[in-house]
Amino acid sequence: MKDRRDGAARIRPRTVVMSVVAGATMLAATALTAPAANAAASTLGAAAAQSGRYFGAATSSFMFSNTQHTTILNREFNSIVAENEMKWDATEPQQNVFNFTGADRLVAHARANGMSVRGHALVWHSQQPGWAQNMSGTALRNAMINHVTRVATHFRGQIHSWDVVNEAFADGGSGGRRDSNLQRTGNDWIEVAFRTAKAADPNAKLCYNDYNTDGINAKSTGIYNMVRDFKSRGVPIDCVGFQSHLGTTLASDYQANLQRFADLGVDVQITELDVAQGANQASIYERVTRACLAVARCNGITVWGVRDNDSWRRGENPLLFDANGNKKPAYTSVLNALNSVSGPNPTTPPPNPTTPPPNPTTPPPSGGGACSASVSLNSWSGGFVATVRVTAGNAAIRGWTVRITLPGGTTVTGTWNAQASGSSGTVNFSNVSYNGQLSAGGSTEFGFQGTGTGPSGTPTCTAT
Ligand code: G3I
Q1: What residue ranges line ligand 1, CB within 6 angstroms?
Q2: What Å distances lie between residue 141 and 137, 146, 183, 205, CA to CA?
Q3: How, if at all, do strands 426-430 and 419-420 pair?
Q4: Nearest residue CA, atom 24 of ligand 1?
Q5: What is the C-alpha separation between 213 and 383, in angstroms, rounded?
Q6: Catalytic pick from 85, 167, 316, 445?
Q7: Which residues of the chain, if any, have pLDDT below 70?
Q8: 286 catalytic, yes or no?
Q9: How high is the pLDDT of residue 29?
């Protein structure tokens, strides 16, 4: 069990604001004398959607055969996350051998039922497959890059928000990083993971996710400083996940903490909410919900399971439905809080995750233009990741080839979003089926990783 931070003070409940919807046929006099309350939504997902948010739950594909679990899941939630099936040990049990069976079933279930999907988690010190646990240095760094690339590419366009890196900060008062095999590859491993994920799935929101960050404390401040640094240097981070595995009290600055991250220019999400059963359970659920609703950049809330008996904290009955599938008082408090706010609020609503990836059979635009390419490098001793941006000139192009000369002794070990002609010397990287067509001035990114030293010269780009 995690060491959960418990703050003592309570947030005074905000005044409940009932919004008024006047239908087209409603008489003005009637509306003035007898305001009709907004019809309250009857499920968590629908209630959250009124303000442009999602309300999700963690689940597992093997639970879909449990009728009670799945009936509640499909009825109440409009986002799901894999409790375990997208983790490194599940998706890459042997190095470079990928298994997406459970995760694909989960995504298919979401699509079939109109739900979006959070991705959890690309890189984490825990639940690594045995082969990765035994790795270190450049080999582990390259394995991590390959893992992020392959998994994020597999689910490209299907995930609204990815936990790119999970739980990398230490507990206690240091505000620093947790020691792990990943951390020992170099302090830049987190930004390498984010840049790699960005190249593989450019439209997903990329999140950093952690626990014991439920208020302003040393750990959340360490993460805050990292996010501020990433934003200032252009590292592609879009959101921060607050797991919120809570005890019997809630820190009084829970909302203020969300807001200070939002003020850095990232979205915030409550990602693994569960609250120990006790006198305050319903009230804490309500206050967390209201905190998210009060922060414009809070996109949504995910609870870490459906029924109490599905929970990793089973003995604490921490969820919204009891073991018989009945709604608990905490459920009602969350639903009422969600229904107390209406109208779109989040400044950057999540992309529609059920939109399929671009159709490669769409006829290409007219070609004939030129292109240019620029390389940004993340290097460490013995290896690098190159992210290459290809930009069309003032006419549309149908395809492109970028020619890059590598220093002697450098070898390309993996490429994403492009086809490489070789692995050393001068290498031609050509578009793949889905990213060759660029409108005038449009751009796309591909990337490659390698051992040795990254390229330093200017690449040439030829349009086709
Ligand atoms: O599937 C195997 C099964 O075949 C085997 O017989 C059994 C024996 O122990 O283990 C099963 O796997 C377990 C798995 O859950 C699926 O039930 C693992 O042992 C167990 O360690 C794993 O626990 C998960 C835990 O992460 C692992 O660290 C929990 O379900 C999951 O709720 C929990 O989720 C984490 C988030 O990812 C990150 N934040 C904290 C949160 C709670 O710890």
Answers
A1: 83-84, 126-127, 166, 211, 243, 272, 312
A2: 6, 9, 10, 23
A3: antiparallel
A4: 84
A5: 33
A6: 167
A7: 1-38, 342-368, 380-381, 416, 434
A8: no
A9: 32
> What distance in Å separates the CA atoms of residue 131 and residue 127, rounded to the nearest whole number?
11
For residue 359, the CA-to-ligand 1 centroid distance in Å is 36
- Displacement of CA 229 from its chain's centroid (Å): 19
Separation of alpha carbons 256 and 250, rounded Å: 12
Residue 287 Cα to ligand 1 midpoint, Å, equals 28
348-396 per-position pLDDT tens digit:
544 444 444 443 334 444 456 899 999 988 776 677 778 788 999 999 9
> What is the pLDDT at residue 11?
27
d(CA 274, CA 316): 10
Provide the b/e sequence for 251-270 (b: ≥16 CB within 10 Å): bbbbbebbbbbbebebbbbb
Residues 452-464, buried b or exposed e (16+ Cβ, 10 A)?
Answer: bbbbeeebebebe
Q: Which tens digits make up the pLDDT trace of 121-180?
A: 999 999 999 999 999 999 999 999 999 999 999 999 999 999 999 999 999 899 999 999
Which DSSP string corresponds to 105-145? HHHHHHHHTT-EEEEEEEEESSS--HHHHT--HHHHHHHHH
Output the six-digit token pair for 311.
């929970």
How many angstroms separate the CA atoms of 313 and 83, rounded? 13
* Measured CA distances, 328 to 62, 124, 249 (Å): 24, 33, 18
Q: Which residues contact 340 (CB under 8 A, 6 or more apart)?
A: 16, 17, 18, 290, 293
Q: Which secondary-structure segment (H or E) carries 283?
A: helix 281-294
Beta-carbon count within 10 A of 169 CB = 24
Give the SS3 label for residue 450: strand
pTM for the complete prediction?
0.74
Is 76 marked active-site? Answer: no
If you search the block for the tokens 């690449």, which residue do you land on? 459
Calpha distance 76→27 (Å, rounded): 34
